[in-house]
Amino acid sequence: FPLRVHPGGQVLPQVQRDPGRQKGPPLPTQPAPTTHPPGEEGTYPLTLYIDPRAGSKELIGHPVFARNTIQVEPMQMEFGDIAFEGKGEGGKLLHICIERKRIGDLFESLMSGRLAGHQLPGLRRTYDYVWLLVEGQWRRDHQGRILTQSRNGNWQSHGKMTVAVLEKRLLTLQLLGGIFLWHTAAPNESAYWLQS
Q1: How many Å apart are CA 57 and CA 149, to the nearest integer?
Q2: Which of 70, 109, 130, 172 would disulfide-bridge 115, Cβ 3.0–4.6 Å?
Q3: CA-to-CA distance for 31 and 154, rounded, in angstroms?
Q4: What is the pLDDT of residues 183-192, one digit of tens each?
């Protein structure tokens, strides 16, 4: 992240990356701020940084964020679609990112190896915690193949990947890739999950 200004007026620390580290989260150069806006001891308004390019740009103006005093700032990111800063144990500043994948994009990135081979390593190097947000609905047919729902509501076969293979690959990403997984049915549900 570039330099950030805390709502209370303090400057948030920049992230220092040790060139000797091959992978791992960014390292804060100083502790996170400990002061808070009046009447909000222990908390401060959340800012979501959302990449305005194709992928998550339609979430930027969702009304649920304004209703919950969540500030949204468009920001192009090398890795990930949505990011925010949180606090860990002892007030340590944490950088958290969400990679949002619609069902079709998820299948393609898993089959090509782009998610595990390129995106995931970059996400793990850049952020302390990474979530994979899978958006859309699927089910299996009588042969175990994946069916996805089209815009008109019909269920249709989606490539050669089976549900069993999809579930195994997602489980591997969680256990070996060190990420968290969340599933929503549609963009509106994703926005409400983000504000929660």
Answers
A1: 22
A2: 109
A3: 52
A4: 999 999 999 9
Q: Of all residues in the chain, what percent carry a pLDDT higher than 90?
A: 44
Instruction: Concatenate the DSSP letters of all residues of 66-132 into one string.
Output: HHTT-EEEE---SS-SEEEEEE-GGG-EEEEEEEEEEHHHHHHHHHHTHIIIIIHHHHHHH-SEEEE
Asked whether the beta carbons of 132 and 173 are under 8 A apart, the reply is yes
Give the pLDDT mean for 122-129. 94
- At residue 194, the 3 state secondary structure works out as helix
Specify the DSSP element, H or E, that contains 13: none
Sheet of 155-162: strand order equals 138-140, 145-149, 155-162
Measured in Å, how far apart are the chain's first and last C-alpha atoms? 23
Amino acid in position 13: P
Among positive and negative, which fits the CA dihedral 77, 125, 194, 81? positive
Q: Mean pLDDT across the stretch 54-83?
A: 89
pLDDT at res. 53: 85
d(CA 131, CA 191): 14
Tokens of 50: 């959302």
Task: Give dist(CA 46, CA 7) in Å, integer.
Answer: 9
Distance CA 108, CA 106 (A): 5
Largest CA distance in the chain: 59
